[in-house]
């Protein structure tokens, strides 16, 4: 009996406090955090087209600024070549790092078991990637297979035009 009365009292009090709160805020206004704590502008959540457009603009500007090393607003051949070389070196290093991590026994090649364990996207295509049919994938064979995939995807996206 006591528990039900206490519960009813708490529920009733909460209801009255809930009804009174909007009135007090309406009279005094919402308390505002100090200006230093307010964010300058909300970060986009990238869930709608406007935010995605903003993200694309930021990406393009950052990329342009990275390529335009002398900041003259123009990308010349020298800047473009330097950017491409740096990008290619970064991609090669990442590939080699991943390959080395996948090569659990450290023999410099990937066995079928290593590929199945660490690169499930490649496992079904192991025989196609294994050009010399030795049951192992070298870095060169994996690179060649990835190049063939990219060329095939490019061909699908860019069919030859009719004369």
Automatic annotation (TrEMBL):
Q: Which parts of the sequence belong to the EF-hand domain?
A: 60-90, 126-152
Annotated region described as Disordered, given as residue ranges: 28-48
Instruction: State the protein's name.
Output: EF-hand domain-containing protein
InterPro entries from the UniProt entry: EF-hand-dom_pair (IPR011992), EF_Hand_1_Ca_BS (IPR018247), EF_hand_dom (IPR002048)
Q: Name one GO molecular function term.
A: calcium ion binding
SUPFAM superfamilies on file:
EF-hand
According to the record, the signal peptide region is 1-26
The entry's keywords: Metal-binding, Repeat, Signal
* Keyword set includes Mitochondrion: no
């Amino acid at each position: 009996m006591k528990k039900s009365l206490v519960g009813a009292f708490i529920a009733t009090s909460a209801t009255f406090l809930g009804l009174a709160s909007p009135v007090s805020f309406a009279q005094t206004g919402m308390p505002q955090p100090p200006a230093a704590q307010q964010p300058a502008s909300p970060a986009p959540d990238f869930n709608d087209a406007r935010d995605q457009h903003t993200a694309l603009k930021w990406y393009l500007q950052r990329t342009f600024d990275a390529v335009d090393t002398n900041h003259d607003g123009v990308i010349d051949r020298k800047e473009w070549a330097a950017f491409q070389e740096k990008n290619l070196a970064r991609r090669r290093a990442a590939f080699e790092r991943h390959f080395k991590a996948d090569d659990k026994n450290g023999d410099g090649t990937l066995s079928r078991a290593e590929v199945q364990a660490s690169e499930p996207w490649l496992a079904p295509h192991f025989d196609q990637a294994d050009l010399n049919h030795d049951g192992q994938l070298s870095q060169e064979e994996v690179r060649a297979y990835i190049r063939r995939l990219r060329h095939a995807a490019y061909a699908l996206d860019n069919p030859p035009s009719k004369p």
